Amino acid sequence: MEEVEQVRLALGLDRENFYLYGQSWGGLLAIEYALKYQQHLKGLIISNMMASIPQYNAYAHAVLMPGMDPVALAEIQQYEAAGDYENPRYMALLIEHHYVHHVLRMPAEVWPDPVNRAFKHINAAIYVPMQGPSELGASGKLVDWDRTADLARIAVPTLVVGAQYDTMDPKHMKWMADAVGHGRYLYCPNGSHMALYDDQAVYFRGLIQFIQDVDAGRF
Question: In 8, 165, 182, 202, which residue has its Cα 20 to 30 A from 81's Cα atom?
Answer without folding.
Answer: 165
